[in-house]
Amino acid sequence: MYIIIAGAGRVGFHVASLLVEEGHEVAVMEEEEHVLEDVGRRLDVKAILGNAATPRVLREAEVNRADLIIAVTNSDETNVLACFLAKEAGASVAAARVRNPEYSGYFITPSTSPSATRRLIRMKSLGVDVFINPEFEAAKEISNYLSGFYPTPVENFADGRVQIREFIAEEASVVGKSVQDIPFPKPCVLAAITRATGMFMASPTDKVEQGDRVYLIASPDCMVELGQIFARPHRPAKSVIVFGAGYAGFLVAERLSRYGITVKVIDEDIDRCRGVAARLEEVTVLQGDGTDRDFLIEQGIGAADAFVGTTDSDEQNILSGFLAKNLGVDRSLIIVGKPSYIPLSEALGVTVAASPPLVTARKIAHFVLHGGAVTAAFLGGKDIQATEFVVNPKASVINRQVNNVELPKDSIVGTVVRNEEVFIPPGEIVLQSGDHVIVISPISSISNVEKLFK
User: Fold this and answer.
1) How far is CA 169 from CA 111, 278, 377, in A?
2) For strand 262-267 and strand 284-287, is the pairing parallel, antiparallel, or unpaired?
3) Inside any domain, residue 195
4) Other C-beta atoms within 10 Å of 29: how many?
5) Is residue 139 domain-resident?
6) Domain residues for 369?
């Protein structure tokens, strides 16, 4: 696919690096010359200097042949206009980063009389096929963790009949045991493991270590029982302290308060505190430093069920999350702009590190699917992807057992879904046309996996 990215900030750069790694042809448009030069040095992309919302720059990017344009500059208006112009010029699909939630709504034109026809204007009429709000998605991820029994991500496949869920290995029943020796109470496949040294595909002989993040493939009704052998379920949070009264902090506080959770927001900036206090009457807002040990103790940090760091500084969020954990908070969650900080955060005991660039990458994964694929999701960072393929009638894997399919190195078939039947593990299943096959593989191997099912 030919994909154009407007904006080379953290989100734009991360998405571009992912798409290049997957083998797509990528062009990046950026107004700041030094930022563009950095992208050009680090990535094999076509670098174009200029405003993405101008016809000249779009022509230089050959927008007329683009399969997808992703506008992720810091300006909502620039992103929407770039998408509109791109679609008018012939781009197939346009995705815009839009932080202002009002832009995803609609506008009804006034009428001259009660009976006159009025036009309904939606942003999709301006060429925006999908809205991406990284901070909102990260806030939603965090609030979902805190309102559930397991503070870890879950991805759905095959119309919800299959899930891939992350669990943290804490129980003695699995720690120190090899994958093949774990007494799983329900059918499942352990697909991948993440630890301080990185993420890797799990083999039967790999041992699970304390604190590992493991990715299980199973039916949704099996997940709770499977999760119990790795970690004790947490009760949903009742009280949460949020450090940071900016946009992300406001979104987290708003969503948590909607769930009936008692929320306390702290920030050093008095104006941001006043802004949140005016908009969220049910939330307690205090001026203070979330990295100040004495202040956190004074605010009852030890009695809180969870702490969430949402400031604009990754370093502050990591430090405050680490401090909260050491002061007795069971669940410490943070937002980090740099995905590379996630392993460091987890090594310091942070329960969940949500990254807006990673959330954006997951959001667009569905728009850069390979031939025959219907769903895709990244596990952990961006190194390993779960892809749901539909077996083509002419595919080379037809009438072959899953065990006999020659997959690329470090790739596995986790599940086969045939009509309403789910096969986990699917080793002896003979593949048929129309089967949905969920494959876990490194990003670099996806194109080779795709060839098997076309």
Assistant:
1) 61, 42, 22
2) parallel
3) yes
4) 29
5) no
6) 362-453
